[in-house]
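Journal club prep — side note

Before the paper discussion, L.F. wants everyone to see what a predicted structure for a comparable chain looks like in token form. Sequence:
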Amino acid sequence: MEASDPNSTPSLEAAALEYAGRGWHVFPCFEPVRSPSGVLICACPKGAECSQAGKHPRTRNGVKDATTDEAQIREWWQQWPFANVAIATGALSGVDVVDADAKADGVATLVQLEETRGELPDTVTARTSGGGCHVYFRHAGMVSKAGSLAPGIDTRGNGGYVIAPPSLHRTGERYAWLEGASPAEVPSAEAPQWVRDATQAKRTRPTFAKGEAAVSMWQPPTQDGLTEAQLWMRWHATSAPEHAAAVKRMKQGQPLFPAGHHEGNLWAFLSYLRFKAPEVSDATLLRLLAPSVTAMNCAKHDTAHVAERLRRINEDYGAALAESVLITAALRGTADSRPSTGAPPTLDAPSGADGWMAAPGYAIYDGQSLGIFKFTDKGNLSTIAAAPINITETGEDEHGTCYVTARWMYGHRERVETMPRAKVSGNEILELAGRGAPLTSSNSKKVQDFLQAQEQHCHASLPRVRIFTQSGWSHDMTSFVVGRQVIGEPGRVIMPGEAAFLDALEPRGSADEHLRLMLAVRDRSPFAEMAWAAGFAAPLLRLLGLRSMCLSIWGASGTGKSAVQATTTSVWGRPSGLKVSGDVSSAALQGELSRHRDLPTWIDDTQVTREGMTNLMAYIVGTETSGARATQTGELRARKTWRSLAFISGEKPLLQIGGAAGAKNRTLEVCAQPLGDAGLATLTHQGLEKHHGHAGPAFIRALMEHYTGAERLDELRELHRKLAAQMVTETTEQARYAALLVLADILARIHICGEADAHAQAAALEAGHAFCAAVLKESRETRTTADAAYDFIMSYVAANWAGFESLVPIKRPGMLMDDRDSSGRRVVAIFQTTMHDIAREGRFDTRQVMTELAAKGLVFKEEGHLTRKVSVAGKRVRAYCLVLDDEKAGVENAQRIHSLPSQMGNVTS
């Protein structure tokens, strides 16, 4: 490993001595060094495996060894001349540091905090990697903690340290003082009050006085605020199975509870009905309850008793409302606090208690420590959560699943999370703790109770939003979702656990540069042009009523196959982020296809080694729906659906002899060198990583503007039919998919490149015809009959006749058998491993072909199996036993060429 050039940067030792002269305690840290491959790794023994490259101490005691002693500092840097310089923070050096990480949006968050809470004073500031910064303040007791000020903004105080200029970062950048903000140019300023409040050690939470008596002003309505249908829908929407079952029995007029279980259950159920629907009158509620109460046939719990219970529950409900207002006013210290029954806040409401809602019986405090509180049975105030969590809106996705949006405060920053309604009421709510929500295993049940009470109480006034959980077209074709963007009808995009996929779909760089790169690829060849058009063809599949398809380009490496695939996916986002690579399983491929719904899917099969997986790819793409799979808990996973254009490349063809006919019909495959220039391919990859994702949304807007109306869509489909009639391919279905690419090429040329209609159509048709000629040639070379595979096998036997006729058992591909068929023809046994090699070379599926040949009597079965066990030098091995066709195999010729002397050994079947 090579150290950095000491002449390329100011002396690190001199910098350390300068800081020590200012009273800042310093010590050395391991520096990044270049590995033989040129990558910067840590100089410590862990090397490339070190996760703290350039940031952890070289000395035994770390920050505890920090000093201002000049002799010690010189000794350290004479021993390690390239060591990074670290400054101890806190009382030791008299400085606290705010560290904003640009990669974690810390810089952007810090700017937002300055806009809302006040600007930071001029003070010593250093630039870190990727646009981040270290802001130095006079020591004021800040804690050394990650995310103490906000997510992405850490602080360093007592016991902490920071890496100082001109140290080297593992990215290759050097820490540097901002112009005019070095310690020699500006003194360290005092941190603003809002920074000190947020970054100092937590103070003890104050104790609150016992609540005063609450006076209820609420009365049950005399007129219903909901229709009966809405009322039943409201009551049915519960995560409590006992309430759901009781509502079902109540609607059917059956007894609410078994005999002997009326007392406690009736009270709880009546409370649920009232708190869930405060808009319903007592008369309506009792009328709907009457058949079930009568069916219980209980003298102690007749209709009069139920009416009395309901009256007392109404009092409890009114008291809960009054108590909520009382607690909120007491905790806020104001006499005119907003009642909890007010309208819900908007998402852009200012932080603090005024932007939050409380459920009946709960309150929110915005003093020194935010929290959700509730009075206990003894009148004492207990904390439910350390910060408020509220439900602010609700909605359904395209599959009818109910979602709710929860909101909480974390590090003076508001966080919003939308999740399925069922997760809020189950143990999965603890997953929010990892996103900063104030949840623990001990308080999660209390938070769930609060959220359910709040949702029930505010159900009528909660905003309704539309949720999208997949990319691509909505069911009504009025919206298209790509990343976090909804084109068309507004709505929120929710794809839990798919942050990397969504980030890859974000546009980056220049739209003009992206177009220039795409055109440079498109104009290289007809294959490159059709590949470019495939990026725009994916969303047309659903508009034209076509099934999923595969586009397969195979051939020698270094000819630009991956570059044209990158161009295809760059239409929608960052190519490398949307690529499916590696030895994927069928289930994993189905998951990727469902994520890429109505978008192109880039599949690189060069690493796929599983037997039959390449041919299975085309079949999986065309099925468009995954199978039901059982989970470890015994449940069934939801089926995944897609409508995708899969672009598959590799050094071997995708389709095989004997493969599924449906997959072949939905696949356009060519052997081509789309670019033929490795240099252009490299430049394309580099450029598309910086500029991507602009053309796809623009194309969707053009489709919506010009073609998605009923009449115009019929015109688009008619144009596709006319183009399909002009395409010459092996099957009519292949012609439809070839016409799809040509149509996408025409539309992209017109709406993305701005070309005239006539020129666009002529250029696209010319490329389409050349592409179809290559597809037709490939289709005819890949014969679909098992006879072609049998011919290939016999040719192999002829070419390797010595290995089959010889009795030497070493490295033999197979052997001749004593068995003969009804016509007297001999049988040749081909070992299983050899047959797999033959199938790979001959591009056919072994099982499919052997099954068809067995039906024709050309393969001998053993107890229903396609293979038989044969003896070779005393060992039993599996082999496929085929009838030997002497004429096709050219055995006589082969025998004359490979005439061998008798060999010792005994081979029997």
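L.F.'s comment for the group: The chain has six domains: 6-199, 228-320, 338-463, 472-503, 508-781, 786-897. Keep this in mind when we get to the figures.
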